[in-house]
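Provenance

Sequences were taken from public entries as deposited. Structures were produced by running a predictor on each sequence independently, with no templates supplied. The record for YEATS domain-containing protein from Rhododendron griersonianum is shown for reference.
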Amino acid sequence: MLQNEDEADGGGFVPTPKREEIQDSSEDYDKKSSNKGLKDVEISCPIVYGTMAFWLGKKANESQSHKWTVYVRGATNEDLSAVIKRVVFQLHPSFTNPTRVVESPPFELSECGWGEFEIAISIFFRSDAYDKQLTLFHHLKLYAEEEFCPLSTKKPVVVESYDEIVFPDPSEAFFARVQNHPAVIMPRLPATFALPLVPIEHEDEEKEGNTTDHLLSQWFINFSDTDELVKLAAARQQVQSRIVMLRRQMVTDGVPHPLEPARVL
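Predicted structure for YEATS domain-containing protein:
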C-alpha cells in the first residue's frame, strides 16, 4: 500500500522470541582472534523492536490517519548505546528520505500515514563488539486484530518483538567495557578468570539513553521472566484441564483403559 511523501505507518505481529547469534566468517574470526577474543565466552544483549500507532481521530484524513513510532529499545528499557552505535530504519520508498538514520538513543523515529508496510531495521554495533550490521524486519500495524475493536486516540496499537543478540568470543575490550552494564547478560566465569586491563573510553560518561521514562513507556510490552513464568503456568493449567476432560470423556464412552495421569515437568 503506497503512501504520500509526508506519511509513514507500520504494523506487525509478535514472532517467537529468537536469539540472533553474530556469525563470523573464517577471515573475520582470524581478525577477532588477533584482537584477543575470549574463546568459549558469549555475551547477549536482549532487545525489543516494534511499532506503536495512534489513530488521529478527528484530525485523520485520507493521507494521514495515524501517528506511529518505530523503535529499538532495551528489553527492560536499558540504554543500548553501549552496544549499538546507530540504527537505520528503511521506510516505504514513497516517503521523503525513506532511509532514516538515528545516531543516538532512543533509537526511534515517528511519522504520520495511512498504510501498513514492512520496515527494515538495520542495527550497527560499536566497533569493539562487531563490525557488521544486523537487519531485522517489522511489519507496521495500524489496526487492532480484534474484528470489532473501536478506533481510539488514547490507546495505541502496539506490536513488539523480543530478541537476543548474541556475541560469541567477544573481544577483551568489549567484555571489559560492558561487564557491568545493565543492557547485557554476562556469562558466569570461574573465579580464577583474570581479564587483562583494557583502556575504556568514556568510562565515567553518564548515559541517558534508557527508555524508562519514555512518553510511550506505559504502552511497552513487559517481556520480563516473571511474566513468562506466569504465562507458562497458565498454559500448563490449561493443558492439565484438557487432559482431565479427555480422561472423563473416555470413561463415559466406555474406553477400557483410561489415560494415565499426566506428568508435567
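Residues 225-252 form the longest helix (28 residues).
Residues 1-16, 29-34, 201-206, 258-265 have pLDDT under 50 and may be disordered.
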